[in-house]
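Need tokens for this chain, all 446 residues.
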Amino acid sequence: MDIQDQVWSVTELTRRIKGTLERGFRAIGVEGEISNLARPASGHLYFTIKDEGAQIQAVMFKGSQRGLAFVPKNGDVVRAHGEVTVYEKRGNYQILIRQMEPGGKGNLQAQFEALKKRLAEEGLFEASHKKALPLLPQHVGVVTSATGAAIRDILNVVSRRFPNLHILLVPVKVQGDGAGAEIAAAIDRLNEIGNLDVLIVGRGGGSLEDLWSFNEEIVARAVFRSRIPVISAVGYEIDFTICDFVADVRAPTPSAAAELVVGRKDAFTGMLSEYERRLEGCMRHLLERARHRLTRSANHYVFREPTNAVARYRQGLDGIEQRIRRELRGRLEAAQQALDWMRGSLQQKSRGALQGGRVKMEATSQQMRQCLLLRQQRASQEVQRLKLQLRALSPLAVLQRGYSVTCLEDGTIVRDAAEAKAGVLVRTRLAKGELHSCVLEQTEEG
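Here are the structure tokens for all 446 residues:
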């Protein structure tokens, strides 16, 4: 009987189709976008996987979801692994999914944006958390592959610029399963070791999938909790990862990270030379100011013409003495006038009263004479005290102690032996009198 003439029941035909599909499409993988996602109370996932030209129903039972590394949602591009089967009650073929993972760059980019947004909301990217890089680090920790181009670039830059820098490398996988966990563990380990000034975390360039380990949340958390400043140097200049946003500083390449760490030795040398030049200029300025003040003091009239200063003090003393004498004369005249008035008044009284008044007048006159005498003595003592004070301030007092002042014939005071040539006549003033002499020879102190 020809198969075209055979009449099947719906159940028999469906089962035959089911067997054919399940035998022919075992352990297949398919990639597409999730839509119509449903998760009933059973916990199973029901959805459609589609692309531009077709779609297929899919189911993933609750027990198979234990290995999921993400939460599926509508619009996600996924790569599903399983087998094709037929749901007999509806006559629909579907994929029974055993494993599922994010698929395609579009989905990875969506995961990147979602994690970036969540960490930004938590404040992991805030500038207030960024630590400054040390000016002259001595110990640098590096987290990268031991055989990759990144470590070679870092060592080349360091050897050219600062060969005595100590590099501590913790080798890790930089892509593939478990790479993110290794990178995070290495960052924590370097923080435990301590005695490091800065960390470089990164790798060379690659695709989004190759760099994905640096977009994992575990790496971002490790970078954020690092007590040591972290430089992120992942990929090329156009590549950005979550690690870049969390790190204290982002470098476009591993070589640039090494340049940020060490700087140029000749730049530091030039900076020190500039500081030395400024310090010398400042010292010269201070010395010049001190020399100017010394010259101005040496040219002061007190040192240039000491006799003039004595004359001014003497003139002031004479003025004080004259004021005292005028005051004493005025008081004496006033007292004499008062005495004359009292004498005339007494003459008008009776003889007895006159006699008594004369006695009182004599007593008063005696008291006034004593008072005037006492005032005159005090004024003389004050004049004497001022004379002694002036004598102590006078340069002539210096002459009394055995010093002398030597002048040329024109009155110029000789301060340096070179000013008095041999054969010149000089005058030497002593405490008493002057000496006139002729210079025979000069002797300068060495």
